[in-house]
Write a structure and sequence with these properties.
The structure is a single chain. With 256 residues, the protein is mostly beta strands. It folds into 3 domains: 3-56; 63-164, Immunoglobulin-like; 165-256, Immunoglobulin-like, CATH 2.60.40.3230. The protein is 11% helix and 48% strand. The radius of gyration is 29 Å and the shape is globular.
Length: 256
């Protein structure tokens, strides 16, 4: 190959290289996809596959298991009982939209008297009660309750505003405990926003700290910077001297 031919070949090669470079850049830009939290890959700032970092879902290794502290069964009247479980979520800034659970009530022979499944939301860094009322047991008498979550929570990051109490119990009063007990409480919204879907559970303890009775009510909405009066009632006397009353408001942050 003479010098002139070599020079032409080098020039053509250089032009081809430049063209290929720009074609490659175009194809990479055209076909490349920005990392997302739904692409089933660990990319971007994720800590796992589609979890952690700026993703809404939390990775399993970032969270702690829910702690069930205790569960109890209480008598409402003949053949009617309630069940309560006390649970702690130790995860700050993380909650779950819907977690299925189940209560089972047992008699003194350790036989199942009744059972019920339900679902609940989980708030951030919270201790709360799960109450199921009106178990119809007929002539059988349950003496203990067993509570379990049926699935692991799908943890999601929660906005910082929901890491604080948006509503609180400002006052409470127990009346008629020897006839038809009634608790009256004032639910106060301390924020400038309406708060929806408030579930309020009440637990009545005796002087030894044992659960006497439980109740539950729901409030569709508490307006901004306002108060809402709530009630809990039972058809029969409590039967024991009351040591304290715990009223726990819970807000479903996923419906706000």
């Amino acid at each position: 190959m003479n010098w002139r031919t070599k020079r032409q070949s080098i020039g053509i090669g250089a032009v081809v290289a430049v063209v290929l470079f720009f074609v490659a850049r175009f194809l990479i830009g055209y076909f490349s996809v920005e990392p997302t939290c739904f692409d089933r890959e660990q990319n971007g700032d994720e800590l796992g596959i589609d979890c952690g970092g700026s993703c809404a879902l939390r990775c399993s290794f970032e969270t702690r298991d829910l702690v069930t502290e205790w569960q109890r069964v209480t008598r409402v009247t003949d053949g009617v009982y309630s069940a309560v479980s006390y649970v702690e979520n130790q995860n700050t800034g993380s909650g779950a939209l819907e977690v299925p659970y189940r209560f089972r009530l047992y008699d003194d022979q350790n036989l199942i008297v009744s059972e019920r499944a339900g679902k609940t939301f989980i708030g951030s860094n919270d201790r709360f009660a799960i109450v199921e009322s009106n178990f119809a047991t007929g002539n059988r008498i349950p003496v203990r309750a067993f509570f379990e979550f049926l699935k692991e929570p799908v943890w999601q990051q929660i906005d910082d505003i929901f890491n604080q109490r948006l509503v609180r119990i400002r006052s409470q009063k127990l009346e008629n405990e020897d006839t038809r007990p009634r608790i009256t409480a004032i639910l106060e919204n301390t924020t400038l926003n309406h708060v929806r879907d408030v579930r309020v559970d009440a637990i009545v303890y005796n002087l030894e700290g044992n659960v006497i009775q439980v109740g539950v009510t729901t409030v569709p909405q508490v307006d901004a910077a306002s108060e809402y009066e709530i009630f809990f009632t039972w058809p029969e006397p409590l039967g024991q001297e009351v040591g304290r009353i715990e009223i726990i408001p819970r807000i479903n942050v996923f419906t706000q």
